[in-house]
Please model this.
Amino acid sequence: MRALMLTGSLLMLAGCAGLPQPDPTQAWINLGPHQQDTVLQALEVDAKASADKRYFEVPPGSHELKVRYQFAVAPTNIGPDAKPLWRDCRLSVKFSDFNAGQRYQLEAGNIGFRPWAKLYDQQRKVVGQAHPAGCQSS
Model:
């Protein structure tokens, strides 16, 4: 599983070089920055599948973004003889004021077993926080 996660992360990083130019009539939402042993992917915008797993591009207005966040829970959060536990989580964040031509950043992390994600505007002000939409462990 770890090799799969690392391979996926490397492929996503390599794919970032080929991102399209943002449409100035849309809001652009970057995912990341990517951390070691984690994967953050765009899944849906307003209950419709995202066109690309590396970013979101949405028209101005209100939208709900759903992402997939995969991460390892450290053994220190599990028990003395434990191995890392992989979590595969879905998170949902709503924001009512996306603006055309603006860039946003969606960042994710975890505290133990609990994932979190925050949406930042161009001035690094938090404009949205994600809510968990389900996790699985492997």
Notes: The chain has one domain: 2-16+25-137. The first strand starts at residue 27 and ends at 31. The helical segments are 2-16.
